[in-house]
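Q: What does the predicted 3D structure of Putative ZIP metal ion transporter look like?
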Amino acid sequence: MEGLFTLLALSIVMAITSFVVGSLPLAFTLSPSQLRLISSLGMGVLVGTSLIVIIPEGVETLYSANSHNDRKGLSTRSVTAVEWQHRSFPAVAAVDFSSSNKEAASTFPLTQTVHVTRDDQSELRQREDEGESNKDEHNGHKEENSSHAWIGVALISGFILMYLIDKLPDFATPSKQQRPPYHISLDNLGSGLRRNPSPSREGGLLDAGSTSSRSHSFATTTGLVIHAAADGIALGASTSDTGLSFIIFLAIMVHKAPASFGLTSVLLKQGVSSRTARAHLVVFSLAAPFGALATFLFVRIVGSGSNNDEAATLWRTGMLLLFSAGTFLYVAMHTMQENSPNSELRELPMNGYGDSRDIPTESDKSMRDLVASVIGMILPLFLQLGHAH
């Protein structure tokens, strides 16, 4: 129950912090460079957490399950050896060589019988020890190879899950309808060429623009909610280790803070009201805690239905950690692509009439974003120093 209380406390703090940070755009706005700096730091923390914290912890937990099985088998063999030796002593002392039985003593020479019996026991014991050592070596190699295979399976499973979550909604939504041509009469040619910051003021584009904005805002929120729920998997899978849960909690928070801030900013730019944006923010803030609690309950239900062997519990925990590491790697890769300069160039107007001031200059792509990303990658290493064991 201690793990459940810790997870509940972290989930409550995560939900409140995400909502507070996401509400900031309703009061003031950050410049694009400041928001990009926070996003770069969060991206670096995601990469560092997956490579420095989650993957090593998952591998160590997975191999500790095998070592636990080895220790259990060794103790069982020790008890068997003691029982075998205990049963073998009466066989050696089966013949009575006392002075009262001289005929038996003359029939069975003392030195030869004892010598042969000891050699037989030594040879038999040596053969059994060699057979057990060869069997242990074979089983050790088999378990080691099996662990190597499961590491890759868990990592790629988490990565593929996030990839499908990211790409499948694109196939489910209908294809974008082509915007109807904007006809300008010769009498209104001058006013038509003027740039209007709000094209929805034109009667012909008002309905289409509002419908497109509403559907786009829903798609944006849905994508971020799914990502946040997947991030909660890592937190729910690490409840067996309080120190690891705290590190993963910090990594998720650093990633969710700019995401919640950016969600509200994008919704406001799309013309969504403050009340609707706040409702979207509440759903996003509760997504990661819901994913963490659902993962925790799933692990407990599956664990209670199977045997409560410590090795099996360690194996499941290691697989969940590696699975969450795969999800972290995809989210980090996705964030790196969003922060790349090429992604900004793809969003430029392609009709040739865009304002040249909208084009990002070389000064916008400063070195501080790169430094922030590297600092974010190294930050989990310092958090891991006190947790290393």
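A (community wiki): The structure tokens above were generated from the sequence. DSSP finds eleven helices and no strands in the chain. Residues 78-94, 110-116, 182-209, 344-360 have pLDDT under 50 and may be disordered.
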